[in-house]
Write a structure and sequence with these properties.
CATH topology: TIM Barrel
Number of helices: 12
Strand order of the largest sheet: 1-2-3-4-5-6-7-8
Bound molecules: NADP nicotinamide-adenine-dinucleotide phosphate
Structural class: alpha/beta
Number of domains: 1
Distance between the termini: 29 Å
Length: 279
């Protein structure tokens, strides 16, 4: 995976879940799971995304669903004036956009919100049971043929789901985005790791920090102290050691700085052995 201008991705990207809150000011009916209207502080969020990019992060992880279908607009405002080809922008199709003739108009809306004319990666957000996600694949293939989408990604896919998607797709699957965390290893099975590695599919870890236990774990704190680091940094460094890329969401500057610096932490064999014991 690289940007259109040929730059490698900084291994710690920019998550955007909850940017903009969970309410769409353009569409009050688009509440996420019936949540109460909670807006984000857009100016702070835009500034944080720009701060992250100016400090070297170049992979932005979006999804049409985020912010009740509004977050993409905030990201679009954050990247105004920046060199687009140096950024790698991923977006995800929600279950309502996967079936026949839905993918193209959805991508058109994504591009309008983001203020761009191509996506670096288009994911199927999950192998939804209640949507025919397989129908999206030929449409994604066509979007790649036209250059509107560069890479095809899947998320929350098991090996069986990926095999099925691979059978249907003309273009290769570039990434699988999974819930993967030093304390949540269960979804990224050994089979999935091997399959992804053998098929050149990049694992991308979501929710690398969120689980409260990461910040409260004694073992992680002890290892963090040894490295003069924070538990969040150890959690990120562990993921990089698994050959995953990761996409923490951070608005606070101190968090952004810490996350970027985590890419330099080298965990020892004994650190890894301790962390591997944690569930
Ligand atoms: N594919 C999927 O199904 C899926 C599902 C969920 C998420 N995702 C993607 O994955 C991204 C990451 O997941 P997430 O946002 O749910 O969880 P996360 O990145 O693990 O956690 C975000 C939270 O951690 C805090 N944080 C960030 N850096 C920190 C640090 N160094 N120290 C302490 N706290 C820190 C943030 O605070 P501040 O914001 O205040 O800095 C925020 O409250 C999402 O934003 C989204 O792009 C994908």
């Amino acid at each position: 995976m690289q940007t259109k201008s040929g730059k490698p991705l900084f291994p710690i990207g920019i998550g955007t879940w909850n940017i903009g809150g969970v309410f769409n000011p353009n569409d009050p009916t688009a509440k996420y799971k019936g949540a109460e209207p909670v807006y984000g502080n857009e100016e702070t969020e835009i500034e944080a995304i720009r701060y992250s990019i100016s400090n070297g992060q170049n992979h932005i992880d979006c999804a049409e669903l985020y912010g009740a279908f509004y977050t993409d607009e905030i990201v679009g405002r954050a990247i105004v004036g920046l060199e687009r080809t140096d950024l790698y922008i991923a977006d995800k199709l929600w279950r309502t956009s996967l079936e026949k003739r839905l993918v193209w108009p959805t991508v058109q809306k994504m591009l309008e919100k983001l203020g761009t004319n191509y996506l670096d990666m288009l994911y199927i957000h999950a192998p939804f049971k209640d949507a025919n996600w397989q129908e999206a694949i030929s449409q994604i293939d066509e979007l790649i043929d036209t250059g509107i989408v560069r890479d095809f990604g899947v998320s929350n896919f098991t090996v069986a789901d990926i095999k099925l998607a691979n059978k249907l797709a003309r273009h290769p699957i570039t990434a699988n985005q999974m819930n993967f965390n030093v304390l949540h290893k269960i979804e990224v099975t050994d089979d999935l790791k091997v399959y992804c590695q053998q098929n050149n599919i990049q694992l991308i870890a979501y929710q690398p920090i969120k689980r409260k236990e990461v910040l409260g774990s004694k073992i992680i704190q002890t290892i963090a102290d040894k490295h003069d680091a924070t538990p969040a940094q150890i959690a990120l460094a562990w993921l990089l050691n698994q050959n995953a890329l990761t996409i923490p969401k951070a608005i606070n500057h101190q968090h952004i700085d810490e996350n970027i610096a985590a890419a330099k932490i080298k965990l020892s064999e004994s650190d890894l052995a301790e962390l591997d014991k944690e569930i």
